[in-house]
């Protein structure tokens, strides 16, 4: 969405909704980021992957994933990452090292906003 839009609007919970619904939402006004080719392709892949998972229990059946997302394993917590710039999408997998404690530590160390706003 770009730095200017993010600075103006801050963190938007549900920012993925335009990609899932393919419909404009109030917070999409003032930006054309959701109309770019990259965003449109990301939306198609996201919708197809979620639909495949809901229909078959397997997100890989969508035909849109360039990588294979393995079943969840508590020992190997893989995340499927959807990203796009204005022209292209990137779908990757990474092994997550996130834990509840790590997230809380990161939030406590974050000095980008005042503590009373966290």
What this model shows, in words?
It is a single chain. This protein is α+β, with helices and mostly antiparallel strands. The chain is built from four helices and two strands; from the N terminus they run αααββα. A two-stranded antiparallel sheet has the order 1-2. The two termini are 22 Å apart.
Summarize the structure.
This protein has 118 residues and is an alpha+beta fold.
Strand order of the largest sheet: 1-2
Overall morphology: flat
Helical/strand content category: alpha+beta
Helix content: 25-40%
Instruction: Outline the low-pLDDT stretches.
Output: none
Work out the number of β strands. Answer: 2
Approximate strand percentage = 5-15%
Q: Write the element-wise H/E pattern from the N-terminal end onward.
A: HHHEEH
Q: Mind telling me the C-alpha Rg?
A: 17 Å
The profile of the biggest β sheet is: 2 strands, antiparallel
Whole-Å distance between the termini?
22 Å
Helix tally equals 4
Mean pLDDT: 84
Query: Oligomeric form of this entry?
Result: single chain
Main attributes?
single chain; 118 residues; two-stranded antiparallel ribbon; flat; 4 helices; alpha+beta
How are the SSEs placed, and which strands pair?
Layout: H1 3-9, H2 17-21, H3 37-56, E1 78-84, E2 89-95, H4 100-109
Antiparallel strand pairs: 1-2
């Amino acid at each position: 969405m770009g730095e200017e839009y993010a600075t103006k609007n801050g963190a938007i919970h549900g920012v993925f909704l335009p990609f899932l619904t393919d419909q404009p939402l109030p917070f999409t006004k003032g930006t054309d980021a959701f109309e770019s080719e990259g965003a449109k392709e990301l939306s198609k892949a996201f919708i197809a992957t979620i639909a495949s998972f809901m229909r078959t229990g397997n997100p890989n059946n969508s035909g849109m994933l360039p990588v294979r997302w393995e079943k969840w394993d508590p020992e190997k917590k893989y995340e499927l990452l959807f990203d796009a710039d204005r022209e292209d999408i990137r779908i990757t997998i990474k092994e997550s090292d996130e834990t509840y404690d790590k997230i809380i530590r990161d939030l406590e160390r974050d000095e980008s906003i005042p503590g009373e706003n966290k």
